[in-house]
Amino acid sequence: MATVLIRQLDEEVVRRLEQRASMNKRSLESELRHILELAAEDDFAVKRQEFRQLSRRMREKTSGRTHTPSHLLVREDRDRDHGAI
To answer: Is the pTM of this model over 0.85?
Structure first.
């Protein structure tokens, strides 16, 4: 196991972390370990994979349809009055 030292933490931050640990019935060390483990699990690879799956489903749903090129949609929107006085 590795050891990590964090210097110069604001005392108010430490106080709030201690409160959080107490509410979760953990020691401060255990609560910090838990927070770090959760942060490490927030992996971009997982999010990237979820995005790819969503993209694939969207492509399947819209396959065979004709789509207006985005630059034409942007031009149309810019040319609109948008209710200007």
So the answer is: no
